[in-house]
Amino acid sequence: MSLSVIIPTLNAAGSLPGTLARLDGVDEVIVVDGGSADGTVELASRLGARAMAAPRGRGRQLMAGAEAALGDWLLLLHADTRLDPGWRAAVETFRVDPANRSKAAVFLFALDDPSTEARRLERLVAWRVRWMGLPYGDQGLLISRDFYRSLGGFRPLPLMEDVDLVRRIGRRRLVILPVAARTSAARWRRDGWIRRSLRNLVCLALYFLGAPPRLIQRLYG
Q1: Which of 97, 134, 142, 178 has its CA 20 to 30 A from that of 77?
Q2: Is the dihedral angle over the CA atoms 111, 211, 9, 178 positive or is it negative?
Q3: pTM over the 0.85 mark
Q4: 119 falls within a domain
Q5: What is the CATH number of the domain that holds 143?
Q6: For residues 112 and 123, what is the distance between their CA atoms, to the nearest angstrom?
Q7: In this structure, is residue 50 part of a structural domain?
Q8: pLDDT in tens, 161-220
Q9: Is residue 34 part of a domain?
Q10: Max Cα-Cα span within the chain
């Protein structure tokens, strides 16, 4: 059972090396770039990933990567997210169970920040995932190629592509792996912990109310 890791990027040269370093030895790593101007594509190729271009927008980039992937399983990962030690064992335990070919899995949400605000946000995200079944893309997504295709794959959305797919998977077919995906807290430090979290919540609410994705994208920044 081969594994393809798909990473959408846009000007991610600063964070991508750390992300790729945790993926050494994976069958295939595909970096799908949306038009970076900081050398991300060249860096990805130099570090051993298969780099390709796609129209900008995570939904479109992930669509392109999934179509090009050769693996039986897909692991979708953000460029500023590093998987904690033990992730391979957790992934293999999930993949060897035949029942999981019609399920998907995400990692625990964690931030690379020692602050109390970070721990509080991690607890809130854990609650959202447990009770609402709504992980975001920064928790990764492990899914078999066949199940992914049966769901219709990603849609060409500029934002909320992760929520859109997870809603089609459904809470009962979503498993939380016991290993963290540790994401950069730079956005929260830059925008403010409360302000950024409220902005994300408003974006989610607008999505459920049917607001146009491009409007949500402008608000998200």
Answers
A1: 97
A2: positive
A3: yes
A4: no
A5: 3.90.550.10
A6: 14
A7: yes
A8: 999 999 999 999 999 999 999 999 999 999 999 998 888 888 888 888 888 877 887 777
A9: yes
A10: 43
The whole-number average pLDDT for the span 137-143 is 96
Q: Which residues pair with 183 in a beta bridge?
A: 81, 111
Q: What letter does residue 97 receive in the DSSP assignment? A: S
Query: 10 Å Cβ neighbour count for 152?
Result: 10
Distance CA 210, CA 221 (A): 19
Amino acid 206: pLDDT = 85
H-helix segments, the chain: 16-21, 40-46, 58-68, 87-95, 116-132, 145-150, 161-169, 186-191, 193-208, 213-220
Distance of CA 153 to the CA centre of its chain: 14
The pLDDT value recorded for residue 149 is 96
Q: Give me the domain span that covers residue 78.
A: 3-114+134-185
- Contact (CB, 8 A) for 99 and 128: no
- For the segment 4-14, what is each residue's pLDDT rounded down to a tens digit? 999 999 999 99
Instruction: At 38, give phi and psi (nearest 5°).
Output: -115, 15
Cα dihedral: 69, 74, 79, 83 (round 10): -140
First to last CA, the chain: 38
What are the pLDDT digits (tens) for 71-92? 999 999 999 999 999 999 999 9
